[in-house]
Automatic annotation (TrEMBL):
<protein>
    <recommendedName>
        <fullName>G domain-containing protein</fullName>
    </recommendedName>
</protein>
<dbReference type="InterPro" id="IPR027417">
    <property type="entry name" value="P-loop_NTPase"/>
</dbReference>
Amino acid sequence: MLLGSDAAKISSGALGCTFESMAYNASIGGSPIKLYDTSGLNEGTKGAVPAKTAIINLYKLIRNMDSGVSLLVYCIRGPRIEDTTVNNYKMFYEAFCQKNVPIVVVINGLENEENLDDWWGANKEVFESYGMHFAGHACVVSTKGKKKDTGKYSFEEEYEESRKTVQKLIGDHQLGIPWRMERNIWFVTVVKSAWNWLALLFGLPKVVLSSVLYFALRMTGITEEEALETTNSVERELK
């Protein structure tokens, strides 16, 4: 919708099709931006991407994003809020970006609603009851629909209006100065790694090299030991 072409792979199946983060160049209001279509977490009943793998990929993406992050756009298909809906919100906004980046929500799949904005008015409190608060919102039609005998699509006008709405949402809420994830100082990483080596020899508790990734992994129910070992393995790989 934002690119004005079928550049991004989409799916209507039970499982999502976004296996890794993909970057797309776009323009909003004459200003160039880069959009990242990120890995899905626990999509459908089983998920297209194992949660652990998706979390690691997302952490690597944000950690290595030298240009920083200006805005989180959370796309949710109406009308239900599931456990994964809340977990994904916490994963991106609270764990990875530590509430330093504004987050907006785009509710799609509302082709059968007479007034799109009425949907948000009726459901806003439900999101807030789950602790999900957004800097802005957009309720949209995400497909042009079927082609009619006239040559036009059934939701063509609504689709174009939705595109403008999402563009304005992004333009209004993105940070002027992008936020960057803080990386461990080299010396601190060396000291922590040395401690873990001694801990292995003397049976002492290990320390985690990245509290951000560790917290994100623990949110999905991964054990303390596995989260610690996975986190430290990823950090050693990135150094």
